[in-house]
DNA sequence: ACGTCACATCATGATATCACGATATGACAG
DNA sequence: CTGTCATATCGTGATATCATGATGTGACGT
């Protein structure tokens, strides 16, 4: 019972859906998500705790950063749910923008490891038309 | 995006999970759910509206009663989610009790149609041992 | 057409959740 | 063992959700 409710809570907020959608692309550390998803670090962190309580994600430490990943148990179910609304999600402008920014942040990794802290990504390109 | 969030909201409350679990057994009218799930009619109704907004259930009128059913589109997904936690749900005492009471209420139908209004089910048996 | 009955909606107060800034923690480098 | 930096937690005020009782609505039988 409670497991289902916690899964529901994980999915019941647009910000958390954005986070899950991003994690479906790739494991990400908190600093990468702060930049890519453009939200306050404390806001992001508390949503991550909510998702973690649902057993949907797990953490691992990589150097100074904490990396979040979908759990092996939850991933298929999350994929199924997301897939059932894939087209609506892909049409969402916020989601599309997140995708691009996640990829940009991933490009900055060295040897697949995040080397840049939160809020340090040069976004001067973004202000150009 | 919003569809996923609404689905999440439908699942994010224990009372709504109970309702969905009951509807997985059988279509039910509101009066049957009031008795079987032992909740106030207005409480039940507002949860049903939440679930309906998520596109998970649809209604039809049968005589005076309104019958709720999982939609054909949502049912497979709901089944998948429930199944992924089937054992935990079956272990839930509240859910188990609901199951019994739903079956009792269904037994009272004539020709598969509910004939008894809300709060009219004789529960004198329940107070025995 | 008029009640009646099942259901929906409203009003309210209590509790939970949200975003955000400030502060705490704790792992690593030096 | 000390500072630093990434992340977690706390505090707060605004908003949303909950359960419940009162009231509204609309389809059916008479």
Note down, in words, how this protein is organized.
The structure is a homodimer of 129-residue chains. Chain A is mostly helical and 129 residues long. Helix content of chain A is 59%, strand content 11%. In chain A, strand 2 and strand 3 form a beta hairpin. The relative contact order of chain A is 0.18. The model of chain A has no long low-confidence stretch (mean pLDDT 92). Chains A and B meet through helix 1, helix 2 and helix 5 of A and helix 1, helix 2 and helix 5 of B. Chain A binds a DNA duplex (30 and 30 nucleotides) through helix 4.
Number of helical stretches of at least 4 residues of chain A:
8
Largest interface: A-B, 26 and 26 residues
Fraction in beta strands of chain A: 5-15%
Say how many strands of chain A there are. Answer: 3
Shape of chain A: globular
Mean pLDDT of chain A: 92
Assembly level:
homodimer
What Rg of chain A, in angstroms, do the CA atoms define? 15 Å
Largest sheet of chain A: 3 strands, antiparallel
SSE order of chain A, one letter for each helix or strand: HHEHHEEHHHH
